[in-house]
Design a protein that fits this description.
This protein is an alpha/beta fold. The chain has a single domain, classed as Rossmann fold (3-Layer(aba) Sandwich), CATH 3.40.50. The protein has a 6-stranded mixed sheet. α3 links the parallel β2 and β3. α2 runs parallel beside α3. The longest helix is centred in the first third of the chain and has 23 residues.
Length: 237
């Protein structure tokens, strides 16, 4: 009888512990940005390289002028998914002495690239929301813009979450854009998770990259507005 009761108590404890592990495995904040301007499928263009370095000095690097990180909460990790995102994120991650966590997808045909990004984005989002390593931490995700948010992908892959907007549950919040515009390289999406035991975000805001004088002249068009011609010579449109 005692052995039976003990087994029952252990079963109850195990059932109670499982949700607790999930409740604790929530980041405090996720900062999402698109990779910088590109020259082709393999590398950033000069403006993109300049943006990656300017991001370090002003927003994402150690001792950045307008750091997005509270003094008490430095970034715990930088995530990337493609060559463009890897090149964009590396200078900032290096400034903090952090390795770059890459769910690597290499250039391929448009269809194969999209399918590989689907899988990698799902794996990365699962890691971010369930790995206790990120509990209460701030992480940065530098991603391909259509796999952040793009209505077309929802149509192409119905019933199959493939975008960060879906996988990180940003679609549960009002005001989160349904598309990350192809013309915009100059924004951050900042998402908070302040509700213990829930993987639903509690707040969302967009921050525009507004570089101080002395930085290279980088495109800073309003959300959804076309990029001004001539602001990124040598870059793919």
């Amino acid at each position: 009888m005692m052995r039976s009761c003990l087994a029952g108590l252990l079963l109850v404890a195990a059932c109670c512990a499982a949700p607790m592990l999930r409740a604790e495995a929530q980041p405090a904040e996720i900062i999402i940005l698109r990779h910088a301007e590109k020259a082709d499928n393999f590398r950033l263009c000069p403006a993109g390289t300049q943006r990656s370095l300017a991001l370090v000095k002003q927003y994402l690097g150690r001792d950045a002028r307008d750091s997005l990180f509270p003094a008490s909460q430095p970034p715990a990790a930088f995530f990337a998914v493609s060559l463009h995102t890897l090149e964009t994120a590396t200078p900032a991650a290096t400034s903090w002495g952090l390795p770059l966590i890459t769910y690597s997808v290499l250039p391929a045909s448009p269809e194969d690239f999209a399918l590989a990004l689907n899988q990698a984005t799902r794996r990365a989002a699962h890691d971010v929301l369930t790995n206790p390593r990120w509990t209460g931490k701030t992480i940065v995700m530098v991603w391909e813009h259509d796999h952040i948010a793009h209505s077309n992908l929802k149509t192409r892959f119905p019933g199959e979450p493939v975008m960060l907007r879906q996988l990180l549950h940003l679609d549960r919040l009002p005001g989160v854009p349904k598309d990350w515009w192809g013309s915009n390289y100059d924004y951050f999406w900042i998402v908070r998770y302040d509700r213990p035991g829930s993987d639903s975000p509690t707040s969302f805001r967009m921050v525009r990259q507004d570089f101080v004088p002395g930085q290279p002249a980088l495109a800073a068009n309003a959300w959804g507005a076309p990029r001004l011609s001539g602001t990124a010579p040598g870059c793919e449109r």
